[in-house]
Here is the input.
Amino acid sequence: MHNAIEIKNLCKQYPGFALNKVSFSVPIGMCCGFVGPNGAGKTTTLKAMLGMINKSGGEISLLGMPEGNISVKENIGVMFDQPYYQEEWNPLDIEKGLQPFYGRWDSNLYRKYLSKFGLDPKKKFMEFSRGMKMKLGLAVNLSHGAKLLLLDEPTGGLDPVARDEILDILREYLVSDERTILFSTHITSDLERIADMIVYISGGAVSFSGDKDELVSRYCVVRGGKLSDEKRKHAIGIREHTSGFECLMEVDNIGGLPSDAVIERATIDDVVVYMERRSRNA
Amino acid sequence: MLNMLKLDWLGMKKYRKKIPLALLTAIGVAIFSDAYVILPVVVIGMFEAAAYCFDAEERGKLNHLYLTLPISRGMLIRARYVMSLALQLFGVVIGVVLTIAFSAILNGRTLVFTYSFTPTVQLMAFLVCTSLFYGAFLSLTIHPTLFWKGYAKAKILGYALPMYGSIILFVVFVSVTARVEAMNNFMQNALQWVFGNTLLSSLIILGGAALLLACSYALSQKVYAKREF
Here is the structure.
């Protein structure tokens, strides 16, 4: 088994939205950023991977096992925008409830994480802050020996300090080569820090899937006064204003730009924003 | 399945204190009406209590947790049915004890009227079976609706409507029967047969309950397999 995640031609029809033959794979040991604007299909794809929705077509394989294989979930940790536990539960209740489902649950490790993250084992879940809840969710997922973490907007709504702490935990998790993360987010600065690869989804279809550095090195942001018609054909998501223009452009196409043009390295955020602008203007 | 049962029970943590309320309600009703109402009220109270795990699931969005656990949807359904049955059977045991105790305490006279109910083995068996039958009837209407639409919608569609609807229908039926001689005669004969053959009629009612429960379970499996979150 080489890939932790393999998705081929995943389709899901909704009124007004469809996942259209989504295909990508994530090799074992990678942290994959799953990016795209709101409503692009990130959560739908994740839910299809977990069997929370019924797909219309396509194939999903997680950790080498086809979807529907329940035992594979023993090796998967999942976190949505927040962990979902009963509000009256405390971390000890959570352990009591979830431990029997996971053969590799490590109670000592769980207690260690609770202590490390400063989580009171007897405090009710509803009394934790959002950042603490996320840490608790991670403590649970790390304690059952998950080999694959599926995270849906785990840092959304967190303050920068809490985000930084969560990213540190994830970085530590990835030290072992056999662990993989799929990290859906639209806070792309998080991905600049921990992702090895990016899957970019827009309008229910995958626009890019590959190495993060390849994505950002393939494009650059160009700003200038006026763009020739010839160069305009290569401009992605061009925005024009009174003093000139700005757009995304493939590095291969930047030759012949006007001398006043400023060329900057693109960030993941730039790629997402300009690509989206192009698809909206199309 | 035991793990899921335990998790559901844990999910009902804040609801469990409501369970004794079913017992108190039954005792209160018995003091005003008759000792034999204790058993069905306790059993239905326990049926209601078992549905709290759906409420807990919905309020805490626990389906987002449950569906990520290494268990199938079918296992989750089985656990819910076992929880419901286990609580109803617990209700049967408590109900039988309370019925016998209160029959002795009330000694044929409640706060409102006198009666002649004596808790014989046959009558208690009949009460147990009819209580379970009513639980199975409610299960047929509420469980598939709970699995299909969730607790908030199901408690109106699948629970309140059938429960109060069936009570209203029963009252209408009794009123009409009392006024129409042919129906009255038929019911008299039917009741005479039922109480003359208590054991057999109890078994028939229990068989009916099992059938309703099987239908309920099959429907729940069908609708929950299609449900999306």
About this structure: The longest helix of chain A spans residues 130-143.
